[in-house]
Amino acid sequence: MVDKNVRAPGGLVIARRARKPGLVAEFNAKAAPLRRLTQARLWDGNAEFFKVRLETGSLSDAREAVGFIPWMFDLPEAGKGYEAAWAQLADPQGFASPFDLTTAERRHPQFRSHGVGTCESEGAVWPFATSQMFSALKLVPRDYFSTFLTCVRSRHADGNPYIGEYLDEVTGDWINGKDGRRRYCNHSTFAGLLITGVLGLRSHADDTVEVHPLLPPETWDWCCLDGVKDHGRLLTVLWDKDRRRYGRVSGLQVLTAGKEIARADSLHPAFGKLP
To answer: Is the pLDDT of residue 135 over 70?
Structure first.
């Protein structure tokens, strides 16, 4: 089995489902050195952040959004000090801004210094990069929902829901306008931030269904996610704090074909098995 702290990549999941032990072993053998090299070669102890290593061999002097990507795969070892990087997420001099998370730390002298409208990526908000950061942020539940609300606020234009290519972190204006190829850039995987993050619906290779909401208590009294396909079945996730909305049960419930497969009395993790 792969180290439990390393999220299995797609190839490993497929190898397991295909019952290819040799291929599983091959993927597992690659996991440990990747973790070791990432931690040894990309971690800047002084900046307390994973950084880009330049062609010169030195690390970049800027903290960038890609420094959170190792957590998308549960790669950094817990208890080794790497968690310090998350302090930058809520810091206005780091990545926090009025409109979503920036792609580089705002304190850097070259932040947003290369002009506007040429696909520059030295700090402006790029929804795709934001989605990657949120995929990592699932491991820091206390900050997920509040940061998600800022993300929601940014995904608008002219008072309507909208996702463009990239935007100004202070004004919320979409850079390069809202036409042509920049119109409705749905590469941000915004729906996934809600489905797998806020509501916490997670699929597993062994047909186990997990719902691990990152919704803080006393935030929503009810919500429903319906028609999500998982291994060929359609799932419904219901949250009804006091049974008043849907009239079924109080709490969290997961159903498929009208049959309950998982339940929790509150916003706690619930597990079930697909029929």
So the answer is: yes
